[in-house]
Q: What sequence folds into this?
């Protein structure tokens, strides 16, 4: 934009009664900022919501990198950083390796100083970040704001665009924009296909976990206990008549858990009252309850949504596979679920009746209608190992896994299609001298990625600088539920 046009724009905004600073949601003086670097400004401590960004930059040793030249920096708020840390199971920045933090925050800086006031409407800037991946900055406009700015609003990647909440900070070392989500580079990769119809799992091992306690509660009698051989378990969501059912299971240690294919919550519905198809929500709860003392007043709160499924009379099976996998991985001794019906509020007498575990006052565990969790193991996979090569890289460096390191394919007599997106690797043993990341975020035990993601360069190993060797172990599974017979030990050599 020519200088004359630039000045006319500012004059027009001022003449119309708009304050340029307000339009940009910029609460600092641009002229004042131009005399200092971004780091110097943050060190003043005036931006209390951006302290963790400064902490991350210093922890990773990125001060010089983000300040050299004329650069654009995307700054996540403290809440944005806390959210990402929580998603990978930590609370503090220094609980992740310096290499991981360096990689994540290097993505937020690229060459050139880009501000919305200097961009055309609908213009998108594609920068190559310091981590090597593209990052996008796009200006749009609405009726109330002609200078809306977005990060990663692009069809080239699989990200949701992020709205810039404070923009156009101009320092002597370039521009900065504040966001309330941590931008990540998420490359588009084909998802795993659905399980093919007609898969025969009849030969797969199974095991049933019987319900150990069950009861229901009723809002109309908040201190009443509704457990016993002559008490059905009810679900109801009509005004003034809320009934929830609770089930508890002990997690027995069984061999098939290592290759668990599915876990289903099974219970028998005796009757559905009212002309409707009940939608049942299954939620995790604490185990701090007993069937003989449970009431509406003391029942545990509903926590994580585990599954939602329509119900019918007779036996129902609700998929809870991932939740049970996580419970076993965390060595939990038991799990509890709370059930509630999510519809039927306007239907007279709408109610679901579920058989209890008791058949009599003395026969508490042998009812043919008692709820249980059905565990199903995996069948043998049709995959074959093409190669498993040593992963070589530099000390303290980042290694991108490729199909040259690891590749599986369909065996000679395979019945199904095993494209890269249908070959799944599951981490069983983590490396000790580094971190495996997917889309920049650390992966823990039981995390999984596909061969398609390896081919796309999404999976990386970040060395922590300690030692010259490392190893991690993978289980291989295909989209049909088959599991490869051997675990893969991946060896890393660093120089």
A:
């Amino acid at each position: 934009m020519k200088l004359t046009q630039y000045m006319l724009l500012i004059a027009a905004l001022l003449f119309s009664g708009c304050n340029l600073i307000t339009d940009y949601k910029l609460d600092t003086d641009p002229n004042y900022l131009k005399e200092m670097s971004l780091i110097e400004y943050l060190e003043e401590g005036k931006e209390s919501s951006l302290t963790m960004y400064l902490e991350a930059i210093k922890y990773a040793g990125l001060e010089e990198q983000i300040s050299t030249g004329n650069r654009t920096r995307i700054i996540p708020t403290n809440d944005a950083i806390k959210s990402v840390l929580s998603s990978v199971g930590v609370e503090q920045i220094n609980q992740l390796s310096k290499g991981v933090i360096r990689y994540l925050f290097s993505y937020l800086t690229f060459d050139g100083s880009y501000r919305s006031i200097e961009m055309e409407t609908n213009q998108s800037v594609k920068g190559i970040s310091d981590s090597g991946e593209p990052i996008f900055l796009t200006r749009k406009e609405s009726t109330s704001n002609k200078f809306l700015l977005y990060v990663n609003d692009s069809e080239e990647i699989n990200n949701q665009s992020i709205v810039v909440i404070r923009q156009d900070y101009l320092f002597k070392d370039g521009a900065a924009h504040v966001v309330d989500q941590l931008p990540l580079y998420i490359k588009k990769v084909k998802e795993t296909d659905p399980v093919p119809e007609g898969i025969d799992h009849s030969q797969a091992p199974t095991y049933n976990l019987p319900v150990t306690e069950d009861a229901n509660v009723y809002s109309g009698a908040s201190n009443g206990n509704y457990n016993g051989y002559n008490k059905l378990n009810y679900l109801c969501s009509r005004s003034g008549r809320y009934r929830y059912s609770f089930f508890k299971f002990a997690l027995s240690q069984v061999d098939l858990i290592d290759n668990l294919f599915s876990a289903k919550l099974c219970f028998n519905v005796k009757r559905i009252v009212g002309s409707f198809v009940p939608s049942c929500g299954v939620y995790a709860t604490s185990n701090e309850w007993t069937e003989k003392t449970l009431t509406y007043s003391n029942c545990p709160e509903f926590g994580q949504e585990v599954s939602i499924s329509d119900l019918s009379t007779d036996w129902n099976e609700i998929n809870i596979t991932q939740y049970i996998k996580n419970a076993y991985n965390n060595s939990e001794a038991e799990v509890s679920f709370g059930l509630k019906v999510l519809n039927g509020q306007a239907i007279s007498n709408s109610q679901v009746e579920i058989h209890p575990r008791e058949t009599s006052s003395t026969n508490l565990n042998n009812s043919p209608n008692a709820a249980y969790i059905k565990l199903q193991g995996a069948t043998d996979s049709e995959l074959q190992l093409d190669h498993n090569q040593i992963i070589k890289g530099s000390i303290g460096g980042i290694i991108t896994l490729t199909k040259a390191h690891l590749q599986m394919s369909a065996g000679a007599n395979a019945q199904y299609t095993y494209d890269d997106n249908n070959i799944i690797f599951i981490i069983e043993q983590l490396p000790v001298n580094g971190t495996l990341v997917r889309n920049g975020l650390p992966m823990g035990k039981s995390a999984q990625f596909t061969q398609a993601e390896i081919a796309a360069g999404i999976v990386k190993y970040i060395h922590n600088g300690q030692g010259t060797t490392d190893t991690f172990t993978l289980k291989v599974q295909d989209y049909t539920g088959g599991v490869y017979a051997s675990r893969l030990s991946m060896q890393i050599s660093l120089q």
Q: What stands out?
A: Residues 286 and 300 are 6 Å apart (CA to CA). The domain at 3-179 is CATH 2.30.180.10 (FAS1 domain). The first strand starts at residue 71 and ends at 76.
